[in-house]
Amino acid sequence: MKVFIACLGTETNTFSNMPTGEATFAETMLHRGDGSRHGDDLFAVPLAVWRRATEALQGQVVESLAAFAQPAGITVRHVYEGFRDEILDDLRAALPVDLVLFSLHGAMVADGYDDCEGDLLSRAREIAGPDAVIGAELDLHCSLTATMLASADVLVTFKEYPHIDARERAVEVFDLCLGAHRGEIRPTMASFDTRMVSMWRTPSEPAAGLVRHMQALEDEDGVLSVSLAHGFPWGDVADVSARVLVVTDGDGERAARLAADFGRRVWELREQTHPTGLSIDGALDRAVAAPAGPVVLADMGDNAGVGAPSDSTFVLHRVLDRGIGDVLTGLYWDPVAVRFCQEAGEGAQLDLRIGGKVGPDSGDPVDLKVTVRRIVADARQSFGGSRAAMGDSVWVSAEGGLDIVLNSIRVQTFHPDAFSQLGLDPTAKRIVVVKSTQHFHAGFAPMAAEILYIAGPGAMPMDFANIDYRKFTAPFWPRVEDPFAGS
Ligand SMILES: [Zn+2]
Q1: Which residue among 108, 315, 411, 426 has the highest number of C-beta atoms inside a 10 angstrom radius?
Q2: Overall pTM > 0.90
Q3: What are the extents of the domains in the chain?
Q4: CA angle (215 as vertex; 209, 221 as ends), nearest 5
Q5: Is the peptide bond before 233 cis (omega within 30 degrees of 0)?
Q6: Distance, CA of 264 to CA of 270 (rounded, Å)
Q7: According to the model, what pLDDT value does residue 141 have?
């Protein structure tokens, strides 16, 4: 058995002005032929799983590119085409192959390609032929398209947000594709469009119940896999809304019925699962009034993980204007400020312009007199089982017990060790403001007296009804009360 594996992806925020080019891939993840040996990167995890599983069966692995970029704006056309063609050339050279397995995100947009995954999968199908089994593992923040469904035999998304189940889903993709190759099963997919644009935080009810519901369905005879593709609200393409995907063994009608049934369950819970957030001042009021700290505030509007600049100053300005003390905040992606701090050295005092540099979503810069407390080169923070690169990182402090962490590689705040490795003690602060939507939760929840979500301005406005879509024209909730009316 010959198994071809590759990874290509990013999550494209089509509203962002930051281009996604080769340097962003190189900085995030770019391996040629050995991505499976770097299996601690979230999107390389499937490659490692698939290599081990194939080798355990005495099969042959042909491994191509593993490329993933920190989310930003639209991918540069020749960069996408170059990576895609590299994968397809490798596939052509490997023929004949039995399985073709891809680790993809599902919300990658390149200049000229609104559906990069559909483009890649359909070309791979043309090359590999109808008898090869093609499977892909997707982030749940994917836009599931008809082209993707028509081109692959098996598609499976993560079930959990934070994404803690990449390994289990990779095993699932492998087992289903292997079963299909051996003729033991006939994976048959159907999807259902919930016509919702929302987010589901799966550690909390009732979203956690939806995950259990999917797992219970998978225990039924003949049901091979159930996914809820949440969609990516800040990628303006034709298929933004959340979709249910069901894979049965040879029964398309049942797959469609189960997808619709579960989709209706998701719909019924829409008000309860829809993410809420506080205004900046509302969150600060509550944090200041809290009996104990640290109160962790998530600045959802500036999450690098969904293509935000991670240098916005909207919260910082309010902290300063209101004179709130004993605050720690990060990570501010500001290579220029980092450079000035490195030049000045630890212990130096300087006038520093912080943040507000990338574009309108960044707000106005903050000018502060700071002391450079600590500089760490090539810092890394914990994220699941991996160590995510932060680049050169600097702790600066200002009057009133304000501590700020600046860094040179754009990344969200995943874990308290983003701060503690610089000598800071986040557990001793009254208020900790992190730039993240949900991935911070796993690391910060154990130390937080309370967690509050801020739906402030920035690159990912949480007012889903009013996102300025141009290409996504279908009716959706919450923009309309009943997007199914008349259909
Ligand atoms: Zn995701």
Answers
A1: 108
A2: yes
A3: 2-273, 280-461
A4: 140
A5: no
A6: 10
A7: 97
